[in-house]
Amino acid sequence: MESVLVVGFNVRPLARSVKKSGYRVLAVDFWGDLDLPEWADEHIAILHQEPDQRPDRPLTLTAESLVMGAQQLLEEHGPVDYIIASGGFDDHLEAWKHLEKLGTLAGNSSEGMQKARNRSLTHEIVKRSGAATPRSFEVTDKKQFEWATNQLSLPILVKPKFGSGGFHSRVLYTEDALNHYMVRHTFTHREPILVQDLIQGTDVSVSLLSTGKASVTLSVNEQLIGLPELGKGRTKAYCGNIIPLQTTQAIVTQLCTISEEICNQLNLVGSNGIDYVIDEKGTPYFMEINPRIQATIEALELVSNYNVARLHIDAWKGKLPQERPSPQAFCTRIIVYAKTTCQIPNLSNIPGVVDIPIPGSHADRGDPICTVNHVAETKEASLKGAWDIVNTIYSHLIPVSTPSEDL
C-alpha cells in the first residue's frame, strides 16, 4: 500500500479524502481533534487538548511547527510516497521549501507557491484574464496608513499582507474606527498591512485542478465570510462555504474561464483555489489564490462522486478529469467559533459535526470549535439545517470566566 503524509492547519478533511482513495495516511495537524485518528494510521498534533484547560499555543509559527511535526512523523514512520499540504503555509515560503526536502511534495513547488502569492504578478495576470482588482496599498507606518486611507472611501478593509483565511483583518466603517485602528495598531516593516477598497457583494471561491498547462474547474462555491452570528462580524474571517454557488450560468462560466486562465498563466499544478467577490453589477473582483488543497474539499466530496485527493495527485501527474463535475445536492459548511470563553462538551453525538475537540477542553473567544456539514436538495434546506446544528452546539457550550472577566 502506498503511503501519503498530509500536513496542514486543519488536515482532517484531507486525511479523510486520502484514506478513502486507498492510501496509508500519516497526518500532521494543528488541532488534534477527536475524529482525526479515524482517518490517519499515524498522526501528530501541535496542540495537546486536555479536559478543563485551554491548550497551550506553540511559541513557533504554525507553519514551522507543522514542518517539525512532519519531520518527526517521517523519522518515526516514514518515508512516504507523497506529501500533500493543505492550509497553513500560503505565505511561509521557507516552510514550504522544507517540506520539499522531506519527500515528494505532490503539489506546487516553492517557486510556484511564490508566484501565486506575488500580488504584483497575479494582479497583472488577473486583469488580462478579465477580472477586476480592488484598489490596494501596502503600508508599514502610520504616515503611509494615513495617506492610503485618504485615497479610499469608507468602508475600507485592512489586513495583513501575509496570511490567509481573513484572520486579523478588519473592516473599518467610520472615521472613529479608522482612528482607533491607527492608534492601536503596531506598524512594522516586517509585517506590512494592506489597505484596500471593501468590495461588497457575494464572496466566491473557485476550486480547480491544473497540470501546469491546462486546468478544469471542480466547483464554484459561495463563501461565508465575516458572519456576525459566529462573532466574526467586524472581520473578513473565513466561516465556511455553500457548494455549489447558486447563480446564473453566465457568471459561473465567466468565473471558470477566468480562473482556468489564471492557473494556466501561473503554471500551477494539482488542486488550487481562487477567491473573488462578485459585486452588485456582476463584476468579479479577484482577492487571492490559495495554491494548495482548499477547505472546501469535504463539502465537495459530500455532494459529488469525486475524490479530491486522488484528483489532486492525478492533476499533479498531468491528468485531468474529462468533464467538470456536477454537484448532486447542496452542502453548507460552517465553522463554529467561540463567542465567549467556554468549555466544550462531547459533540460527537450531534449529526453533521466534524473536527470535534476533546470533551471538556476550553476555547477562548474567537477560537474555532468545530465544523458543521449539512447536505440537502436545496440551498435553503442545506443552510437552515446547518444553522440548526450550529445553534444546538452554542446551546451546549459552557461559559467559563477568565481572570479579566472576574475583575
Low-pLDDT residue intervals, each spanning 5 or more residues: none
Strand order of the largest sheet: 13-12-9-10-11-14-18-16
- Terminal residue distance: 58 Å
Radius of gyration: 21 Å
**Structural class of the helices, strands and pairings?**
alpha+beta
Roughly how much helix do the residues carry, as a percent range? 25-40%
> Count the helices. How many?
12
In one word, what is the shape? globular
Largest sheet: 8 strands, antiparallel
Summarize the structure in words.
Helix content is 31%, strand content 27%. Among the domains are: 3-106, 3-Layer(aba) Sandwich (Rossmann fold), CATH 3.40.50.20; 135-197, 2-Layer Sandwich (Dna Ligase, domain 1); 329-407, Aldehyde Oxidoreductase, domain 3 (Alpha-Beta Complex). The chain contains 12 helices and 19 strands. The mean pLDDT is 92. It has an 8-stranded antiparallel β-sheet with strand order 13-12-9-10-11-14-18-16. The longest helix is centred in the middle third of the chain and has 18 residues, at 249-266. It starts with a strand and ends with a helix. It has 407 residues and is of the alpha+beta class. Helix 2 (62-77) runs parallel beside helix 3 and helix 5 (119-129) packs across helix 8 (249-266).
Give the topology.
Elements: E1 3-8, H1 12-20, E2 24-29, E3 42-45, H2 62-77, E4 82-85, H3 93-102, H4 110-116, H5 119-129, E5 136-139, H6 142-151, E6 156-160, E7 170-172, H7 175-184, E8 193-197, E9 201-211, E10 215-225, E11 238-243, H8 249-266, E12 269-279, E13 284-290, H9 297-302, H10 308-316, E14 330-337, E15 342-343, E16 353-354, E17 362-363, E18 368-376, H11 379-396, E19 398-399, H12 403-406
Parallel strand pairs: 1-2, 1-4, 2-3
Antiparallel strand pairs: 5-8, 6-7, 6-8, 9-10, 9-12, 10-11, 11-14, 12-13, 14-18, 15-17, 15-19, 16-18
Helix pairs in contact: 2-3, 5-8
